[in-house]
Amino acid sequence: MDSVLGYAAQVRLTEATAFHEDSAGSGVVVDLSRPDELGGLRTAMAVDSLPGGVCMCSGDIQFEFLDARGLFLTAAFLHHGVTLRWDGWDGDAVLVDGRSLLRWLDLHGVPGPLRQFEEDELRYQRAKEEEKSWLAAMPPALSEFSEAMLRLSRTGGSVSPQLLAAARDRLRQSVPDPMNRALLLLAWCGAGSGLCSGFPSHEAVPGLLLGDVPMVEIIAGLQDPRADARHDAGAVRHLVGWKSRPEQKQDVDALPAPLRARLLQGARASGDPDKQARAERWLA
Question: Which of 107, 190, 215, 227 could join 251 via S-S bond, C-beta 3.0 to 4.6 A?
């Protein structure tokens, strides 16, 4: 592709999903007649490898290269700030520095891809931090199951009865005291994203294990002097979640009034509108 770009005098930048045959004249047109301008773009589009994979989407930005007469030379498509597609390659190419190309676009009037890339990067980092906190809160006895649990979120799978039974049995063997088990599960349930819906699949595990814990043991754990905000957060997430217990209404109604008020106060202070709304329905 680089040899073809040597003849480019202009590049038209358009959204890849909006491309069609009569799109001529739309988008942002950048003059590449100056050697430094063309050289900067060619450097930003440098390719590191051609692994042979193909992204299933149509891409984010189309680069339509034109010669000095305004005639079409070739087109390339940027995918997610990471890969570049060109019909002369067998598969999508991995860019040497995708952020460099995103910055080039930003400087030439197309800021959206860089902004989206940075937002996606922040979401990814936040998800990794939440995963780390979830793993740190996991009862040590269940650490051997951590990879199987995390795999649920990578594959979109649901928790199997076999995995749940194995985790339940191991926890009972390692932590025979019911109150201690309840405290461990409550703290674990409150870790990670803390969301009541739309959370990673692996975060369902502690809530499912808590669903088998008698309500009297959960209440006893929350009334224990060792209980703190972590346990309250786990209790709220569990008790106001979607069909989290076989007798959910009856179990929530069994909460002593002071404890119920404490959990409601914690939910209201969470800053999570969904959790707040659920808590108002279940705990107020």
Answer: 215
| CA–CA gap between residue 192 and residue 47 (Å, rounded) | 37
CA 233 to chain centre: 21
What is the tens place of the pLDDT at every residue in 123-158?
999 999 999 999 999 999 999 999 999 999 999 889
| Cβ-based neighbours of 246, under 8 Å, separated by 6 or more | 211
Does residue 22 surpass a pLDDT of 60?
no
What proportion of the chain, given as a percentage, has pLDDT over 70? 97
Q: Tell me the C-alpha distance between 165 and 28, whole Å.
A: 58
Local structure of 195: helix, strand or coil: coil
Q: What are phi and psi of 119, to 5 degrees?
A: -65, -40
DSSP one-letter code for 159? -
pLDDT, tens only, 227-272: 999 999 999 999 999 999 999 999 999 999 999 999 999 999 999 9
Phi, psi of 198 (to 5 degrees): 70, 20
CA separation for the pair 135, 205 (Å, rounded): 12
Same domain, 138 and 164: yes
Residues 182, 153: Cα–Cα separation, whole Å: 25
84 DSSP β-pair partners = 78, 93
Range of the domain at 15: 2-110
- Other C-beta atoms closer than 10 Å to the C-beta of 256 total 11
Give the confidence band of 16 by pLDDT, cuts at 50, 70, 90. confident
Residues 105 and 136 in one domain: no
DSSP 171-185: HHHH---HHHHHHHH
